[in-house]
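Bug report (template v2)

What were you trying to do?
Predict the complex of my protein with zinc ion.

What happened?
Run completed; filing so the output is reviewed.

Input:
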Amino acid sequence: MKNIILIITLIISQNVFSHISNVDPNSITAVYADLDILKKANVPVLYADQNLNVGYAIITGKMEARISALAHEQGRCGNYEALDEIPQNISTVANNFAFMNQIQSKNQNYEMLAKNSIEVAENPLITEALKNLKPDNIKATVTYLSAFPTRFNKGNTPNLHVDDFSEKIKALVATAAYPVTVDLISHNKTPQKSIRVTIKGSTKPDEYVILGGHLDSISGGGFGGGSKLAPGADDNASGSASLLEALRILITQAQPQRTVEFFWYAGEESGLLGSAEIAASYKAQSKNVISVLQLDMTMFPGDGVFRITSINDFTSAWLRDYLKAINTTYLNVEILDDKCGYGCSDHASWFRNGYPTLMPTEAKFKSIFKYIHTDKDVISSVMNFDHALVFSKIALVMAMDLGNSSQKEVLF
Ligand code: BES
Ligand code: ZN
């Protein structure tokens, strides 16, 4: 159950995770953090929830450095989450923790009652479709995306690659036998746009199966990243390319019953900016989102080729079980379990808005590609496009299987 406690650790919308160590020592930040880490770092805890093992504190830059050092000792990047602003009232914090406890107990009940109860029957149409996915196409897309000097959302040309890539997607989906729409989504917190592809469901258009990844890149930990080369090949041209390859085959298949949407998000590297706005807007419109897949880093086989990792925090027990079921039926890879320890990618935006999420990634947290966020995140012989293809398979199976079923998350 400890894992569930961590899953729900930090769930408040619009927060920005920060683990950059060269912080201003005089800064003041409100954070939610692991209680044990706060105690070890001698930080005064202003509100504690023993059940979640999470504390609320206002920390100085010096305290932040102590927390980061302790987290790194445990092989983590951060283990705390900075809030956008200091809450006006401690009751806001108490309400947030009450909401976290509510979701946690639902997930705990699910884990106790329904674990491993999912089976996915083989559909020969899906088996055949999977054979058409090609690793060379992923390589070509990663080559193309990582050739942009940067895809940074705060650079001088934040939409250069967005405009060009969306034109490629438009040309691709024009070949579909049914209408597929491509739109660019503008955001409030970044000038960069997200790309959305919508395949409207034939019989259940109000039920959404969502597949996404971030298209932006960063270099130098966010400081002056706009002027540096940020090829972002593994992080995350790879996930973006795995998605595009799944889309290429999906549009050759019968129109799904549920609406299937693909997203290439803006500004993930500056704090999940694009996905935070999109997920909040779907919630505000009461959209019935059945599942959200996040693909972030797919081509570096840090634990071995065909040995992938399912991220266990900010994701749903139901979809993690579903991944194991489709693995048995279609993928036949080894699936390890691990946590980021914080909301490390866009799935966290959807999870915070109450939607079921899944995040399979290339390797365990400690084994992922070391040169992300640098100009060395490029294609080389250590990358493996058969490994990246596993993630295209996951996306395609989710689109064709969940897209044509009545399965959904049932929390008790
Ligand atoms: N690709 C990373 C996240 C990641 C980490 C995926 C480990 C798989 C395994 C992502 O682009 C990233 O850099 N996220 C930020 C956090 C974000 C909220 C700014 C990070 O981890 O520092
Ligand atoms: Zn990143």
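What did the reviewer find?
The pocket of zinc ion (ligand 2) is lined by residues 235, 269, 372-373 (CB under 6 Å). The chain has a mean pLDDT of 88.
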